[in-house]
Amino acid sequence: MVSRIDLNQMDNLQFDVLKEIGNIGAGNATTALSQMLNIKIDMKVPKVALLEFKDLPDLVGGAEKIVIGILFTLEGQIEGMMMFMMDKISAHHLVNILMGNAEDNEEEFSELELSAINEIGNIIAGAYLSSLSTLTSMLITASVPYTAIDMAGAILSVPAIEFGKISDKALLIESEFGDDIRVLNGYFILIPSLESYGAILNSLGL
Questions:
Q1: How many structural domains does the chain have?
Q2: Residue 151 in domain
Q3: Inside any domain, residue 6
Q4: N or C: which end of the chain has fewer CB within 10 A?
Q5: Is 4 part of a structural domain of the chain?
């Protein structure tokens, strides 16, 4: 049986491994997004940090910033939650590319556009989790995505409430990617259970 890991007592090697998992997952997700939209997308090296839930809103622009959050629960050999977040401008830009709209806009999303956002989230999360599964040789399944448009503080309160009893930290992967028109910021937030953190590291020989 895999024991829980103490996130406050991780050594540098363990954290470096988690960072590398974040880098590879974000890279695979960006490649999948590029293929889905049929455009060239470049990505800078992601910034990876293990942060307390209370600090997450500041990293994505503040608790009152309106963002799109696409949330999945994880099951299988790794349990927990995963979220992909981006601001409204970034979401509009991706949706307009996907749907062939001529110009960006900042109006409210239509039902069709929300469906497109869900599909984008599905592709991104699927690619991320596929890379994690390949690296660890572990079976991971994700739920149907739940999409919300709200203030960052409200959206991030969902995993904080759900997992705050067993862990107060999440792995944040901040990715900056873009095409010829715009640079976008996306945030992967991975929240495995403490047993799953241990299982991930054990699978890699740590």
A1: 1
A2: yes
A3: no
A4: N
A5: no
Structural domain including 162 reads 11-203
With a cut of 60, say whether residue 185 has pLDDT above it.
yes
Contacts of 87 (CB under 8 A, 6+ apart): 61, 65, 66, 67, 68, 185
Closest CA to 72 of 147, 170, 130, 134: 147
**Spatial distance between the Cα atoms of 125 and 198, rounded to a whole number of angstroms:** 21
Q: Are 61 and 86 in contact, with CB atoms under 8 Å apart? A: no
Mean pLDDT for the chain overall: 79
Q: Which of 75, 43, 80, 28 is nearest to 191 (CA)?
A: 80
pLDDT value, residue 1 = 45
- Reply yes or no on whether the pLDDT at 2 is more than 50: no
| 39: pLDDT strictly greater than 50 | yes
Residue-wise pLDDT tens digits, 49-64: 888 888 888 888 888 9
- The answer to whether the CB of 132 falls within 8 A of the CB of 25 is yes
Average pLDDT over residues 132-140: 83
Q: How far is C-alpha 53 from the geometric centre of its chain's CA atoms?
A: 14
Q: What is the CATH number of the domain that holds 107?
A: 3.40.1550.10
Burial per residue of 6-26, b for 16 or more beta-carbon CB atoms within 10 angstroms, e otherwise: ebeebeeebeebbbebbbbbb
Computed from CA positions of residues 105, 108, 111, 116, in that sequence, does the dihedral angle turn out positive or negative?
Answer: positive
